Amino acid sequence: CCSSSSSKSFPCCCSSCCSSNFLQLINNNMEVSEAIKGTDEPCIVTMQRIVHGGKGIVSLAQGVTHWDPPPPDFDIDVTTQAYNNYGIGMGDDELSSMLKKKMADENGLCDVEVMVTAGANQAFMNMMISVCDPGDRVVLIKPYFFNHHMALQMRKCIIDYCPRVEETFNLDFEWLEEHLPSAKMLVVVNPCNPSGAVLTLEELNRLKGLCAKNNVWLVADNTYEYFVYSDDDDTTTSNIEHCCVSGSNVVNIFSFSKAYGLMGWRVGWMAWSNKDLSPCLMKVQDTMVICPSQFSQKLACSALRHGRAWCRPLIDGLKQNRNVLFSRLREFDAKCIVGNPVGAIYAIVKLPVEDDVKATEWLAHKHKVAVVPGSACGMKGHIRVAYANLNHHDCEDAANALRDGLVEMQERGMEGNV
Questions:
Q1: What is the pLDDT of residues 100-154, one digit of tens each?
Q2: Residue 186: enclosing H or E segment and its boundaries?
Q3: Rounded Cα distance, 58 and 397, in Å
Q4: Cα separations in angstroms, 297 against 65, 99, 253, 287, 300
C-alpha cells in the first residue's frame, strides 16, 4: 500500500493501491477489468471493517440515520404473489403516481417521467450509463460524493473537478464557464454529501442555464432534500431551503434511505422531462435489476402516506447532534469546519496534518472514533464527519473523542496504536 497508509487494516483510497490489491488476489493467468483496477476502494466498506474489527469504536463515518422506518400500514405476508413476481420495470404504478404528486407539491417538478431504482446510487448509474461513453468528460464539484466518483471511474470517464471559491466556499462559476463546453455531464449533490453546503435557487438556475447553453446534462442528487437546518443565532441561514430545477437537460435523483430510515430497503427514484431519455434508461434498468423490489416499493408507498410530517421531528432532532459536534470541533479549532454546512448530515473538517488516511486510522485505534478520510472526497488533509447515525448521547461521546483526538494530533502528533 502507498506511503499515505500505514496499515493494511486501512487501505489507501487511491486507484494505484486498488490495482495492487486486485493483482494480489488473482491468478497470474487471469485478468480483471482495467476500469475496476483504476477505481477507488470503497471507503465506507473499509470503515465498516475497522469498526467491526475494533473494540469499542464509535462511528461518525457512515451516512445513515439512527431511526427506524415509519410503521407499515399494510399486512406483511411474504407469500403474497404480488411481492414475488417481477414488477413493472419503471416502478409500481401506485408508487410512481405518489412520487409525481410529491414532487409537484414539494419540489415544483411537474410533467416529469419517474423511474424507481434500488437507491439513489442506482439512479445515478442508470443515468451515467445512458448518456456517458468512456472518455467523456464529467464535472464533479469538490468535495464530491465518493460513489459518484467511483461510478465514473468504472465507466472510464474523464473527471474534471470544479473547485469552490476558497474564501466563500461558493461555486466557482468562472471555472465552470471555461470547462463546461467540453463536458457531457455536470453532477451536483444538494444538500451536499460530503460538505453540507446547500445550493440556492439562483445558483441552480445559473447551473441549468450554463449546462443548457453547452448541451450538458445536469444531474442533481437530492437525497438530503429534507435535511436543511437554520442556526438560531445566525440570520444568514434562516432563509436557506432546498430547491429543485427542471428542464430538458436536467435529471433529479431522490432517495427514501435517509429521511425515512429505509437504507437497507434500497429505494430511490429519478425524474426527468426529456422523453427521449426514457427508453435509454429502461435499457439499463432492465439489464441491472429488471424491476425495483416489489416489497420495498410497498414499504415506500406506506412511508409516503406518513409523509414529510413524519420525518420533520426526527430531522429537527438532529440539530442537537449537529450543534454538539460542531461545538466540540470548534473547541479544537474555531475555523476547522469548511464552508457553511447547513444541510445534509455531514461536515468537512480540516486536519492539523496532511495525511488524512493515516489520521483516520489513528483516530479509530487511538481514540475509538471512526470518520471518513477526506481524500475519498477529493479533500486531502481533511475528514468527513457524519452526525445522524447516533442518538444524542452517543453522538456527544463521539464528538468528545474526536475533539480530544484532534487536539492530541495537533499538539503531539500521531504516536502509537496505528
A1: 999 999 999 999 999 999 999 999 999 999 999 999 999 999 999 999 999 999 9
A2: strand 185-189
A3: 9
A4: 20, 11, 16, 19, 5
What grid cell was written down for 391?
442518538
Quote the CA–CA distance of 137 and 152 in Å, as a whole number. Answer: 10
Q: CA torsion sign, 161 to 167 to 172 to 178?
A: negative
| Amino acid present at 206 | R
The rounded distance, in Å, linking the Cα atoms of 294 and 83 is 5
Place of cell 479509530: 364
Cell digits for 17? 493501491
Strand, helix or coil for residue 152: helix
Q: Of 140, 245, 138, 152, which is closest to residue 199 (Cα–Cα)? A: 245
Give the residue from 28, 193, 37 showing the smallest Cα distance to 124.
193
Please list the alpha-helical segments (H only) found in 67-118: 81-84, 93-102
Percentages helix, strand, coil for the chain (3-state, rounded to 5) are 45, 15, 40
The whole-angstrom separation of Cα 11 and Cα 31 is: 22
Report the alpha-carbon distance of residue 349 to residue 328 in Å, rounded. 12
Determine the Cα angle at 138 with ends 134 and 139, to 5°: 160
Q: Which of 394, 417, 386, 354 is nearest to 4 (CA)?
A: 354
Which strands make up the sheet holding 137-141, listed edge to edge? Answer: 113-117, 268-272, 250-255, 217-221, 185-189, 137-141, 158-162
Q: Which amino acid is at 29?
A: N
Cα atoms in the 13 Å half-sphere on the side-chain side of 72 = 11
Cβ(121)–Cβ(239) under 8 Å? no
Distances (CA, A) of 224 to 150, 163, 301, 364: 20, 22, 19, 27
Q: What is the DSSP letter of 72?
A: P
CB 228 within 8 A of CB 343: yes
Please tell me the distance from the alpha carbon of residue 43 to that of residue 137, in angstroms, as a whole number.
24
- Condensed to tens digits (0 to 9), the pLDDT of residues 39-88 reads 999 888 888 887 777 788 999 998 999 999 999 887 767 667 777 889 99
Q: Which residues contact 71 (CB under 8 A, 6 or more apart)?
A: none
> Which one, of 240, 266, 278, 304, lies nearest residue 103 by Cα?
304
